[in-house]
Amino acid sequence: MKIGVLAKRSGLSAHTIRYYERIGLLPYADRDQSGQRDYDASILVWIEFLHRMKTTGMPIREMLRYAALREGGVETEAERRALLEQQRVRVRTHLGELQDCLLVLDAKIAGYSGVEERMKVYDAMALGRERKPAGTRQAGTGSD
Fold first, then answer.
1. Per-block average pLDDT, block size 10, for the chain (144 residues)?
2. Max alpha carbon distance in the chain (Å)?
3. Rg over CA atoms, the chain
4. How far is CA 142 from CA 60, 118, 122, 138, 139, in A?
5. How far, in Å, CA of 69 to CA of 76, rounded?
6. pTM of this structure
7. CA distance 125 to 127
8. Gap between the Cα atoms of 104 and 81, Å rounded
9. 93 in Cβ contact with 127 (< 8 Å)
10. What angle do CA 3, 57, 13 make, to 5 degrees?
11. CA angle (35 as vertex; 31, 37 as ends), nearest 5
12. Residue 63, Cβ neighbours under 10 Å: how many?
């Protein structure tokens, strides 16, 4: 597939695809008779994996390390697994931090909801106490 089609199907721009290829994150594409890049559809699986790793916060240098190990074949499986296990630890730690942040957000939102509820009760009470026009109140009754 041509780079434009790959860009559409992968969600990456053609510029990013060329950049990833240049730095070694993507393997160099075969060229057709006119010299244009011609990618195999299997590249989409690799790009999806890279996207997932990027989403987890894996630095490009580690993705490059993984890509280089991948090129090394079966002999590098243990190293690749170790890299992924390290990333999994970082992701789990980050998830815990995000869960803590979510609890703070929920508590804060609940606090604001409490203010809204208190205001509704206050407004309802204020409506129940119709104010008498000035001069019609009796002094000293404590009815205010």
1. 94 95 91 89 95 96 96 96 98 96 89 74 68 58 52
2. 102
3. 31
4. 74, 25, 20, 9, 8
5. 6
6. 0.70
7. 5
8. 35
9. no
10. 15
11. 45
12. 20
Token pair of 111 as six digits? 């606090």
Task: Say which residue the tokens 């991948």 belong to.
Answer: 70
Contact 87, 58 (CB under 8 A): yes
HEC states along the chain? CCHHHHHHHHCCCHHHHHHHHHHCCCCCCEECCCCCEECCCCHHHHHHHHHHHHHCCCCHHHHHHHHHHHHCHHHHHHHHHHHHHHHHHHHHHHHHHHHHHHHHHHHHHHHHHHHHHHHHHHHHHHHHCCCCCCCCCCCCCCCC
- One-letter amino acid of 34: S
